[in-house]
């Protein structure tokens, strides 16, 4: 989700010409949904559970590898076992990125 506005009023004179707001956690959630859809070749949403989709340790390694390549986060494979729901895992990844 991105919003864009231009500051044209006198009250906005100190605001940047263009402001862009990005829902980073939502973008991470979308990335996970797309990645899991590719890995499982099935429909995935924010409430999907990694294990209910058929996830195993091999698929977890593939997922973590893609996360590391795309987001630059070093994660143990066991992370997905602790947070198997897409929305929960996205929130965790967002927190990790916010700490960096």
From TrEMBL:
Q: Name one Pfam family in it.
A: PP-binding
- Occurrences of domain Carrier (ranges): 22-97
Return the annotated region ranges for Disordered: 1-20
SMART domains xref list: PKS_PP, PKS_PP_betabranch
Q: Which UniProt keywords apply?
A: Phosphopantetheine, Phosphoprotein
Top-rank taxon of the source lineage equals Bacteria
Q: Give yes or no: UniProt keyword Phosphoprotein.
A: yes
The answer to whether the entry has keyword Phosphoprotein is yes
Residues in a coiled coil are none
InterPro entries on file = ACP-like_sf, PKS_PP-bd, PP-bd_ACP
Polar residues bias: where? 1-12
Citing just one GO molecular function, the answer is:
phosphopantetheine binding
| This protein's name | Peptide carrier protein
Q: Which organism is it from?
A: uncultured bacterium AZ_379
């Amino acid at each position: 989700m991105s919003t864009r506005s231009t500051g044209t009023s006198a009250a906005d004179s100190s605001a940047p010409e263009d402001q862009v707001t990005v829902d980073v956690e939502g973008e991470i959630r979308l990335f996970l949904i797309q990645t899991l859809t590719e890995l499982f070749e099935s429909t995935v949403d924010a409430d999907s559970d990694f294990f209910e989709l058929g996830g195993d340790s091999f698929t977890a390694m593939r997922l973590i590898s893609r996360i590391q390549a795309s987001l630059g986060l070093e994660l143990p494979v066991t992370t997905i076992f602790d947070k198997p729901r897409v929305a929960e895992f996205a929130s965790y990844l967002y927190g990790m990125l916010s700490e960096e």
